[in-house]
């Protein structure tokens, strides 16, 4: 029995974090016995992030290392795909996790309409007396990180234009198959659909969330992944 240490469920997803959703889906795809352990504070772990998998007495940090572990245990995330498709799949994972993901962060942490809902949902473990100063400090630090990453330097129009280009690429691929590379899920689906699901799952509708939540192609894809792996 493995233990998945994860952020809690919320906004219609099995976790607030697309990386935790990805880990849940991969474990279910692998067909292993596991149980979840919700955690509010990941700072004690090596990377200071979740998910973390406890397996055979060891802690496996990061969803990609969890994927490597599951493959070592016999899981197959590629099926009959070609080496070329697998190379394209790796690029799509990077697009989802290193670009699309930051649109989730921007919506949740930098949007003043969404932020009060995020603060109430994420930080229930912090006493109310100090919750404001603590969360405001975290938000300020994250703002610096988003500026360094680059997305905060863009205007809203520039950022949404870049988002639209990624979503168009995903729609094009879904026009050929039920999933990204084939008619059965493969590795990039666990990243791409998890991020899309979290973009759509905003507690307050935003221009970003509506681009996914209002798109039947993208939401149909997300629904297929949830039906199979939630």
Please outline the helices and strands.
Elements: E1 2-6, H1 18-30, E2 34-38, E3 52-55, E4 58-61, H2 63-72, H3 83-110, H4 115-122, H5 128-149, H6 156-174, H7 187-200, H8 207-213, H9 216-229
Parallel strand pairs: 1-2
Antiparallel strand pairs: 1-3, 3-4
Helix pairs in contact: 1-2, 1-7, 1-9, 3-5, 3-7, 6-8, 7-8, 7-9
Task: Please give a structural write-up.
This protein is an alpha+beta fold. The chain folds into 2 domains: 2-72, Glutaredoxin (3-Layer(aba) Sandwich), CATH 3.40.30.10; 84-229, Up-down Bundle (Glutathione S-transferase Yfyf (Class Pi), Chain A, domain 2). The protein has 9 helices and 4 strands, in the order βαβββαααααααα. The chain has helices at 18-30, 63-72, 83-110, 115-122, 128-149, 156-174, 187-200, 207-213, 216-229; strands spanning 2-6, 34-38, 52-55, 58-61. The longest helix has 28 residues, at 83-110.
Short description:
The chain is an alpha+beta fold and about 230 residues long.
